[in-house]
Amino acid sequence: QVQLVESGGGLVQAGGSLRLSCAASGRTFSRYAMGWFRQAPGKDREFVATISGSGDSTYYADSVKGRFTISRDNAKNTVYLQMNSLKPEDTAVYYCAADRGNALTRAALYDYWGQGTQVTVSS
User: Fold this and answer.
1) Are 51 and 70 contacting, i.e. CB atoms less than 8 angstroms apart?
2) Which of 113, 116, 115 is nearest to 94 (CA)?
């Protein structure tokens, strides 16, 4: 069992930055690939970024590529999402998720989810 707790969301102006954190419980954090997803009101949950267990492989949605950076610190059981050049369309609840398999962009295949953190970008 893995418990995930996100933090770092908030209100920011367009063009600003935020860093989200996701703290995981358990001793096997490095065995999990981690993903960030987001869900805006009235829309489906969408993939944002994923990182391998070792941290040496990352993949991003086209909509955030070049603006967002996913990273992890396995010693601290934490994954991060650095978000720069934020746009109003980035407004959503952001979720982190843990995957023991090869879920990559497929939300349905992730094993554990956090409760989400709200990010609001004003224009």
Assistant:
1) yes
2) 116
Name, in order, each residue with C-beta under 8 angstroms of 42's C-beta and a sequence gap of 6 or more.
none
Cα 87 from Cα 109, distance rounded (Å) = 28
CA atoms within 13 Å, Cβ hemisphere of 59: 13
Residue type, 119: V
CB burial of residue 75 (10 Å; 0-12, 13-18, 19+): exposed
Cα 27 to Cα 2, 3, 55, 120: the distances in Å are 9, 11, 16, 33
Pairwise CA distance, residues 111 & 90, whole Å: 25
pLDDT digits (tens, 9 = 90+) for 40-67: 999 999 999 999 999 999 999 999 999 9
